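Hey, I'm writing a tutorial for new members on how sequence and structure tokens pair up, and I'd like a real worked example in the thread rather than a made-up one. If someone can provide the structure for the chain below, I'll link this post from the tutorial.
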Amino acid sequence: MSAATPRRGKNAFRFLSLLLALWLPGVAAAGGVVKLATIDGSINPASADYLIRAIEESEAEKADALLIELDTPGGLVSSTKDIIQAMLNAEVPVIVYVAPRGAWASSAGTFITVAANIAAMAPGTSIGAAHPVGIGGGGGGGPKGLPGEEPAEGAAPQRDFSAEKAENLLAAYMETIAAKRNRNVEWVVDAVRDSVAIGETEALELGVIDLIANDRRTLFEKSEGMKVELGSGQEVTLHLVGARVESVEMSMVQAVFNFLADPNVAVVLFLAGLLGIYIEANNPGLLVPGAAGALCLILAAIAFQILPFSWVGLLLVMLGIGLFVAELFVASFGLLFALGVACLLLGGSMVFDRPDLSDLGVSFWSVLVPAVVGMAAFAGVIIIAVGRSLRMPGQAGVDDLLGAVGVASGAIDRDGRIFIRGEYWNVDSEAPVPDRGRVEVVAVEGLRLRVRPLASS
């Protein structure tokens, strides 16, 4: 067979493919590609960088669409804004699918879902609760005071301008996105202002999403023929039935940063780091606790660079550790220790309390309380052990040798050597001592011991 035969066959294949693309768009789409990005966790700089890269990769490879499978409790406002900006300007259709069953698109996830060209949800999922965490808490809209404190009768209500600013900004932003995607503007504003949340059926009825799908295949079938507008204003028709799904994986750096960007992980790493340094300081030379603590603190520092944190909360946590140390040297009958535990709990709950920048927080009962209780229990054991050792009489030096019992190393007439406490000493004996006889130290005279034989020898 000549070399021209395979070339002619290849050219014929290209010619047929071109005909299919021109005359049978539905069949041609069967060989299309849908890129898949999966978010299962918070919205943070790492996940934002991952989704933006997925959009760019989909555009570069001219994919038919980008499918984002979403399950998130929320995240950083800045990262959410970066993602939405990339989605609105994307030159590839972006489909957000809240899945699997039991998933939710809470807070920042609501923004991302509404911003998609096609918004879909699996059965048993929910969306909403986009009100910034912490806004309107405490004293509500009344005068500032203790949390839950009722305003004095006749007192003028005091507005929380910072809370109002963040709420109004997010509500306006959400309204703009919903209007751009022809979704229910009134509901998405309510999701920000009143923290309303709904299931997939109600979301479809209210026009918050476009469709409900049990799986990807159903999603592609229901979206077949839908028209969407790209970032450039160009309108394209979706033909995704039979398309091949290709996953876009997080890079190693993105995966590590995504793990560290969890406030629960950051707090546990910070507490573990302080505990390791605390153990090393009380037991110099162990090395392993100190090295592990230093590593945890480095990772926690990276997490604090990713997440917006409060210096007040961080200083309270460090104050709690300082009170643990003070308990070793001050007879407070446990008062300093109890205050240290309180500072750890209060500081840990405040360290990521930044509703203007994030709706993420530390899980108080499931993460913070067990971590602090475990740390306090360990620190308590060290405090008790160190306290007992400080109250014990001296166990080293000359006085410790008085009354100690040793064994003669060879027969002793008047002087000789004994083995005592892992050492050989020169001794003067009050009476002869046979080899291996037991003696008792009665005096220490410079570098020699004075001994007497025991009656049982």
